[in-house]
């Protein structure tokens, strides 16, 4: 009588050397997936040499269980993710807590964890159990070729440092595929940082093109107006549009409804990969995004770092944009993983980046007017968020750029730097029917692939 995702077989990792009766003689020792109907399954110690984990150290006198998270273990799970991501990537426990509670489709049965028995006491340990690795499946609906497709997003994959390279992440991903197969998912998607993409590729995920463009927003020396920046937008038109431009207040329900109507029209048919957003999604995920806040000073509240503006005509939103100053969570991870620091090159510091997290307009995506709205709202964001003295400092000229998904630009790609980010969207077919196979191929091959950064999981 339990839901399918609860009765899906538990995963057990069995050292092949101890399972010759089940699998026959083998020449090497590694972890292997098996299945059982028991509520708890234990992994006995062995040497793991799963794909990509060559030379792994033996797990001596240890046992590891892979199973769904329990409701009472949520805080332990948040602690694990902080231990994995905070020191290197700068993502605190609050980020993951908000990621969880802002998701209307969340379910603990969709969080897979690897736990071990231990006598040690630590931040992710309770009752003799320690969570050492995890993976979460995000339930979404994607639009591909104008049709809705059930999507299983893979995210929050993390393993404690001393347990990496032992095949645990591989086992979690294999278990996640079985979970998605059992619960009617057609396609799986993930936003993989550079260091993890080889692992995902080995397990069947394929990268899709998601180039971005950095539009130069620096103030030109011959500016028509004091705050004009070289976005390619006529200053007089910009001044007219400012009269109808207002800050977005996401706590206001009528505002969310206006934005949702504009988003639905904008993404109806032109893009592959966009997520559908229902009222609950707008009221939670969009209202309180995980990376919407940064830590304040000691004893100070968090600081909101995502801002938005809309161009409004009565009760209709003609265009809107959500922007974050600085790197997104995925970019933070990539900057560390691939060794890209923020050090200046010569006498030039890296530019201040305005990341476009979400954008939509009432005009058709391929129309010239769409790019006009985009450039106008970028200028509004630059003027509001980046004071002139922050953009240009003595001895180090800091430019200001708007980082935009290239697919949103109609005529501007040739005037901007088009680059493929190191973090990539990747997809894998889950269902075996023709529709799922076709949807996966379309996502990977589409020149109109687009997922708003705010929808990343």
């Amino acid at each position: 009588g339990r839901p399918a995702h609860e009765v899906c077989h538990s995963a057990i990792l069995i050292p092949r050397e101890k399972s010759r009766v089940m699998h026959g003689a083998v020449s090497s020792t590694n972890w292997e997936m098996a299945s059982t109907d028991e509520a708890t399954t234990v992994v006995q110690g062995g040497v793991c040499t799963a794909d990509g984990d060559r030379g792994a150290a033996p797990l001596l006198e240890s046992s590891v269980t892979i199973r769904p998270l329990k409701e009472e273990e949520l805080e332990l799970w948040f602690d694990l993710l902080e231990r994995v991501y905070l020191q290197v990537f700068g993502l605190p426990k609050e980020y993951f807590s908000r990621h969880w509670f802002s998701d209307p489709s969340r379910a603990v049965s969709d969080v897979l964890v690897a736990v071990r028995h231990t006598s040690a006491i630590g931040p992710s340990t309770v009752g003799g159990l320690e969570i050492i690795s995890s993976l979460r499946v995000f339930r979404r609906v994607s639009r591909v070729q104008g049709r809705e497709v059930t999507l299983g997003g893979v995210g929050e994959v993390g393993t404690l440092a001393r347990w990496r390279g032992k095949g645990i992440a591989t086992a979690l991903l294999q278990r996640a595929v079985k979970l998605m197969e059992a619960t009617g998912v057609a396609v799986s998607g993930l936003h993989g940082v550079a260091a993890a993409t080889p692992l995902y590729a080995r397990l069947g995920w394929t990268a899709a093109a998601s180039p971005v463009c950095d539009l130069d927003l620096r103030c030109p020396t011959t500016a028509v107006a004091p705050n004009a920046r070289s976005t390619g937008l006529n200053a007089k038109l910009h001044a007219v549009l400012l009269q109808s431009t207002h800050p977005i207040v996401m706590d206001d329900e009528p505002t969310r409804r206006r934005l949702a109507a504009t988003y639905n029209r904008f993404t109806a048919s032109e893009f592959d990969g966009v997520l559908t957003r229902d009222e609950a999604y707008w009221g939670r995920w969009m209202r309180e995004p995980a990376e919407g806040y940064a830590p304040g000073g000691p004893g100070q509240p968090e600081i909101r770092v995502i801002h938005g503006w809309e161009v409004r005509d009565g009760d209709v939103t003609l265009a809107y944009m959500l922007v974050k100053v600085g790197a997104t969570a995925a970019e933070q991870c990539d900057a560390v993983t691939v060794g890209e620091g923020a050090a200046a090159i010569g006498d030039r510091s890296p530019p201040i980046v305005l990341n476009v997290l979400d954008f939509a307009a009432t005009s058709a995506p391929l129309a010239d007017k769409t790019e006009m709205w985009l450039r106008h709202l970028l200028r509004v964001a630059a003027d509001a968020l980046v004071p002139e003295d922050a953009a240009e400092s003595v001895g180090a000229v800091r430019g200001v750029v708007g980082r935009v998904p290239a697919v949103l630009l109609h005529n501007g790609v040739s005037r901007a730097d088009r680059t493929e980010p190191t973090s990539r969207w990747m997809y894998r077919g889950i269902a075996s029917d023709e529709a799922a196979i076709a949807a996966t191929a379309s996502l990977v091959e589409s020149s109109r692939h687009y997922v708003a950064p705010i929808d990343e999981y």
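The longest helix spans residues 368-385. The two ends are 31 Å apart (CA to CA).
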